[in-house]
Amino acid sequence: MGDYPKALEFYEKANRIYEKVLPPNHPSLAKAYGNIGQVYNNMGDYSKTLEFYEKAHQIYEKALPPNHPDLGFSYNNVGSVYGDMNDYSKALEFYEKGLEIYKKALPPNHPDLGFSYNNIGQVYNNIGDYSKALVFYDKALKIREKALLPNHPTLATSYNNIGQVYNKMGDYSKALEYYEKALKISKKALPPNHPDLATSYNNIGLVYNNMGDYPKALEFHDKAHKIYEKALPPNHPDLAISYSDIGLVYNNMGDYSKALELYDKAHKIYETALPANHSHLATSYNNIGTMYKNMCDYAKALECYEKALKIREKAVFPNHADLAICYGTIGQVYNDIGNYSKAFDFHNQAHKIFEKALPPNHPHLATCYNNIGQVYYSMGDYSKALDFYERAYKIREQALPSDHPDLAICYDSIGQVYNDIGDYVKAVEFHDKARKIYEKTMLPNHRHLATCYNDIGTVYNNMGDYSKALEFYDKAHKIYETAVPANYSHLATSYNNIGTMYKNMGEYSRALEFYDKALKITEKALYPNHTDLAASYGNIGQVYNNMGDFSKALESHEKALKLREKVLSPNHSHLAISKHDIGLVYENMGEYKKASQCYEDAVNIAQLSLPSNNLDIHLYRQRLQDVKKKI
C-alpha cells in the first residue's frame, strides 16, 4: 500500500524485541535490519538504507560461513543502494562479490544466480554500456528459462529489462518484441488487475511514445492506468508514475495544458505519499517546470526547477547524475531567456558532475555537450557551437547504434550551424543523414521527421532553390496536418516557413497569407507571452515593410518587441532583432533620428549578447552609420 511510516513503525518494534532477546550477531537480527533498510530504500532515503543494510551485512559476515547464500544476498542489497546513489563502481564491486558467492554456493541454474546477473546488467544499463547490459541480462534470462516455469513472472521481468535496453538503444521493434513477451507471460500468470501487468502495458506505451505513435501510446498507458486505479490505493506512487507517463505523451503532442493537468495529479499524490525529499518529488517538479518552459512561462519554470534542485541537493550526493540533470534544465531556461552567462554556469556544473559520476562515453555527457553547444549557437558563436555539437556526436557514435534517433539530433544540430554560416552543401549533407535515421526508425508522420524536412527546406530556401524548399516544406506540412491537431504550434512553424519562402521570392501577398495562418494558429495554440508569437508578429512586420505599408509594419514589430521585453532578459539578441526591424521601418519612412536610436539600441544589446565577430552586430553597426549620414 506504500504506507512507509507505518511499515517502519512495526519493523522498528520488531527490531527492538530482537535486540533484547537475541545475541548481537544473530541472523534474525540481520533480517530485521534488512527490513528497515528496505523501507528507507522505498522512501528514497539512501543514506539510512545503507546504514541498516551495512548493519545487517556486518552480522552476516560474522555469523555465516564465507560462501553462505544469505551473505551473497546481503552483498546484493548493499550494491543496490550504491546503484541508487549512482556510485556504480561500488555497486559493481558488491554485486560481483555477491555473484562469486552464488557461483560457489548454488547450482548453475539457481534463480538467485539469475538475480545476481540481472543486478550487474542493471548497472551496465545505467552507465550506458548497453552491450554489456544485454550480456548480463541474457545470462539471467537463460538461467530463468531453465529454472522457472514458462509463465513465471520473474521471466517477464527479464524480458522487460532486455526490452528497456533496446528501447534506450532506439531499437524499438526489438524493444516491442521483448515487452510483448513479458506481457504474454503477465497475462497468463497474473490476475487481470495485477500492478505488474500494468507495468507491461506502460512499457509498451513508452516505446510507442518514442516512435511517435501517440494514439497507441495513450491506449497502452490508459490500460495500465485503469489497472492501477483498481489495484492500488488512490495515493500510491505507481499511480502518480502512470499520470506522468500519460502526461509525457501529451507533452510530445504539444498539448501542454493537458500534460500539466496530469503532471499536477501526479505531484499531489507524491506530496501525500512520499517524504518531502524523495527523488520522485524532484522529478515531478522537473516535469511541471518543463511544461512551463514549453509554454514560455520561464519564471514558473525556474521556480519548479529550483524546487527540484533543492530536493536533489538534500537527497543525493554531490556527484549524483540527477543533480547534474537539474543543473542542465535550469541552464536551458537561462539559455531560452538569453542569460547566457547563467546558462553556462549551470551547464558547466552539470558537466563537472557527469565527468565524475559517469563513464566518458555516457549519453548524459553527450546531452550536456549538446546543451552547451546550444548556448553558443544562441549567441551566434558558431565555431564553438560546432565544437560542442561534434563532441556530443562522438560520444553518441560510440555509445549508441548507428541509427539511434539521438544521433539524428546531433546531425540536425550540426546541419543548422552549417546553414547559418552559409555552408549549404554541408548543411544539406548533415540534415540528410538525420532524415535517413528518422525515416528508418520513426513512423512516417513523426514530428522529428517533419522538423528535419523543415530544416532541409530552410537550407534550400537560403540557397534560392525555392522549388526544392517548397517540396520539403510541403512534406513537413503534410505530417503536421495529419499527426497533430490543427492548432498545434508546429503547424504554425510550417506556415511561417512557407511564408518566408514567398517573402524571399517577393510574393508578399502569398507570404502574408501564410504568415496570417501561422499567427492565428499561434494565438490559439500558445500562451499569450510565448516567444513564437513575437516571431509571427516580426515576420508580418517585415512583409508590410517590404510592401511599403509602414504603419502596419510598425504595429506588428512593436507587438513583437513588447512581448519579447516581457519574456526575455533585457540583453537577449531577439530584442536587438526587434529594435533593428523597427529602425528599418523608420528609415524607410524618412524618420532618420528615430531609426538611428533604434539601430543604436540594437547595437548595444547585440554587443552584450553576441560574440564580437557576429554578423548581426556588423549589420546593425552598418545600418547605424548609414542612417547617421542621412540626418
Residues in helix, %: over 70%
Order of helices and strands: HHHHHHHHHHHHHHHHHHHHHHHHHHHHHH
**Main sheet characteristics:** none
Percentage of β-strand residues: under 5%
Arithmetic mean of pLDDT = 93
End-to-end distance = 78 Å
Q: What is the CATH-assigned architecture of the domain at 316-395?
A: Alpha Horseshoe
CATH level-4 homologous superfamily of the domain at 316-395: Tetratricopeptide repeat domain
Subcellular location: Cytoplasm, Cytoskeleton
Protein name: Kinesin light chain
Keywords: Cytoplasm, Cytoskeleton, Microtubule, Motor protein, Repeat, TPR repeat
Subunit structure: Oligomeric complex composed of two heavy chains and two light chains.
Structure, described:
This protein has 631 residues and is mainly alpha-helical. It has a domain at 316-395: Serine Threonine Protein Phosphatase 5, Tetratricopeptide repeat. The chain contains 30 helices and no strands. It has helices at residues 4-21, 27-42, 46-63, 69-84, 88-105, 111-126, 130-147, 153-168, 172-189, 195-211, 214-231, 237-253, 256-273, 279-294, 298-315, 321-336, 340-357, 363-379, 382-399, 405-420, 424-441, 447-463, 466-483, 489-504, 508-525, 531-547, 550-567, 573-589, 592-609, 615-630.
